[in-house]
Amino acid sequence: MVVLAFTIICHFLQACSTLPAPEDKEQTHHLPPATDTASARYTHAEVDKHQHQSGFRLLTLSTNALLSRVALADHAMHSIDLQYYIFANDMTGHLMLQHLLAAADRGVRVRILIDDNNFDDKDHLFEALDSHPNIEIRLFNPFQTRNPSLVSRFTQFMLEWRRLNRRMHNKSFIVDNEVAIVGGRNIGDPYFDAGSDTHFRDLDVVAIGPVVQQASEAFDGYWNCDAAYPLNKLKKTDGSDQKLVAARQLLQQDVRAFAQSDYAQSVLDELPDGPTADKRGAWFWGDAELVADQPEKIEAKHDEPALRIGPRLKAMIDSAQHEILATTPYFVPGDAGTKHLVSLAQSGITVKILTNSLASTDETAAHAGYVHYRKAIVSGGVELYELKPSSGQSQPSTSLGQSSGISLHAKTIVVDSRQVFIGSLNMDQRSKLLNTEMGVIVDSPGLAKAISDFFQTATQPSNAYRVEIAPTSHQLIWEADDEGKPVTYQDDPGATTKRRAEVTLLRMLPIEGLL
């Protein structure tokens, strides 16, 4: 009976839901860099002082990262291009939508590309904004039905596993082809310390200079690829004009409530003169390269290194003479990656890696893949740190409310205190082979020091466990400080019995290639 019902559902989905033809959309491209705005004149004046180099500011504080996006949207005069794995339908998502809508109302062309895996439009906000003449929304690699139920989603995954298992993980925010934000943050409350659930510790950079043009070209490649579908070709409802009116009212109410929240007051108290993207101030300068997987990566039947950024990052790591600092929330290096990192450490290069502990991770499946390599990594001489969950911990200088804990989400590499990668790529098999990723590679001692400072703070004994091998038992131990006193744990510290059981179960499954 169950098999019969499943078969009927499969046939129903195949018969009633098909994606439109990939060519059934307009090809559009980035606009020329702005020259007629105050921001553009300032940017050009700064870039002209550093020929052929790009400038960067590191967005460490979550509140700063949110305000920078808001400020850039408010200063846009010609175009805004956004590309995200997650654009959440929550408080900060609504805040961004309200400012994007305001930009569109004053004539700015807004293009929004979102991966469909986590796309949520239950109240038709995105559909309503898509009806605005200056806003177009496209979904990457979409499901065949809008807002699918759990049964429908599961069924579609079963029918089209190979396609739907591959996602666009890229993250960029480009304004007037003059300034861009690239890094690890999605759009949503957990990435800006705005919710009551887990808060992510993450990093972005604001960029100006030649690297912005490269980001725009990468965006166009995804925007016009066959896997990007216009939302208005996928929706099945009418009444968009009325929906836009309703969306304006809803967004105005939500933003008014946001402005009166404790969070907004904390932001005002914290950053009255802070270094948000619209403020003048110092930049880190250096030769920079925007690196992005080709969108065709999701269609490749076998690994094609030419389509992905991994070889370029490996070359950067292999150039190390002294030190490698890597931050990754999910660390599943595989046998080859483990041997490579150990060989670097045993050649005399200091290799330090920061990832999530079992207690802080938001993906127990990824942690199950990681623990298979943990002992070999540490035994081979790599310094390994795991972030503490630190329930309720806030970032420096913030005064936000309690959360259920923090989780690492930043993805960075620093080589020899000079070369830097910051972007969306995790050090796992999914980022390497299945999802598409992007980031920037920069030769800048100043930016390298700023990211290294973040790493050093995060790996302090008060913030992270250092994973070691016990000299007598030769088993893993975790060393840290608890209220200023050294403490050693014999097993994954702070993890619940439920989490330990999940990892034990997941380790028995042949899923590493999916992690």
Folded structure, characterized:
The protein is an alpha+beta fold and 515 residues long. The protein has two domains: 237 residues, Endonuclease Chain A (Endonuclease, Chain A, 2-Layer Sandwich), CATH 3.30.870; 222 residues, Endonuclease, Chain A (2-Layer Sandwich). 37% of the residues lie in helices and 21% in strands. The protein is built from 17 helices and 20 strands. The strands form two sheets. The chain has an 18-stranded mixed β-sheet, with helices on both faces. The chain has a two-stranded parallel ribbon with strand order 7-14. Helix 4 links the parallel strand 2 and strand 3. It is globular, with a radius of gyration of 23 Å. 48% of the residues are buried.
Any chance you could write out the topology, listing elements then pairs?
Blueprint (H helix, E strand, L loop, with lengths): L1 H15 L21 H11 L5 E6 L2 H14 L3 E6 L6 H15 L3 E7 L9 H6 L4 E6 L9 H10 L1 H4 L7 E4 L3 E5 L15 E3 L2 E5 L1 H14 L4 E3 H4 L5 H20 L2 H9 L13 E9 L17 H9 L4 E5 L6 H13 L3 E7 L7 H16 L3 E5 L18 E3 L3 E4 L3 E5 L5 H6 L3 E6 L1 H14 L5 E6 L6 E7 L2 E5 L7 H11 L8
Parallel strand pairs: 2-3, 3-4, 7-14, 11-12, 12-13
Antiparallel strand pairs: 1-8, 1-10, 2-5, 4-9, 5-6, 6-8, 10-17, 11-15, 13-18, 15-16, 16-17, 18-19, 19-20
List its traits.
515 residues; alpha+beta; Endonuclease, Chain A; 18-stranded mixed β-sheet; two-stranded parallel ribbon; 17 helices; PLD-like_dom; EC 2.7.8.-; transferase; PLipase_D/transphosphatidylase
